[in-house]
Amino acid sequence: MDSNLLKVFVEVANQKSISKAALNLGFAQSNVTSRIQQLEKSLDICLFHRVPKGVILTTEGEKLYSYAVEIVKKIELANYEMKNINYQKHLIIGSTESNASTRLIPFLLKLNKDFPNMNLELITNTTKETLKNVLNYKVDIAFISGEPQNEELIVLNKIDENIVLVEPKNQPAPNTFLSFKNGCAYNEYGQNYLKSFLSEDYKHLEFGNYETILGCVKAGMGKSILPLSIIEKLNYKKDLKLTKISKKIINIPTYLVCRKDYIPRIKDYLENFKF
Predict the structure, then answer these.
(1) CA–CA gap between residue 94 and residue 117 (Å, rounded)
(2) Which CATH number fits domain 163-244: 3.40.50.300, 3.40.190.10, 2.60.40.10, 3.30.70.360?
(3) What sequence ranges are listed for the domain HTH lysR-type (predicted)?
(4) What pTM, to 2 d.p., does this model score?
């Protein structure tokens, strides 16, 4: 059964008029009449009664009508989906707290502007938990600290970070390492740096946000290792002693990743985004 014939049939039934249906469909009236006759011939039934003011459905036509409406709607929906196959309706973004603190707001603003009909959802956590979320299909894309090692992931974008040793500006820092909570990449790299390169025994304190860490370093409680971008964003650069750490020693870029088998439809857009 030709779906195009069904579409014409539904329109004629809705309008109760061949001439009105022809006008709505953009066809000649004779074309519509011909298509109705073609459908009637293929089914070997009469679909319409001709009356002075137009047409009305026969009993057989009424039975076909409900099926035809459903078929036409499904075909129209399928056509719409195929034409908009590259349109991302919903995007769940996972991110580290460090990335959320620095560059995520401009990213979200641009994303919302470029895709006004796309719903956005943000989940922030440590790199460890964010990796779990993307691997378990709980987020579509994820910003993580450090190169992903899991073969199930692919990199969509990369953002270089300048890592610095953060100390009080006007007083010696005690051997206390201040870091974000367990699971943060800077936590692990920082502890290894203190042990391997500074040969220090230290006390370790964990916090739930970066502003508290920087405030405590400023107050003389200890030292930390963080991306320069966080310190600049939170306006602590002038208040602290900052020592840049060579990328040969610590290199922790931020990566935007997704699963190989769950690639977002806006992949090309994300790969070319300028952070």
Answers:
(1) 20
(2) 3.40.190.10
(3) 1-58
(4) 0.65
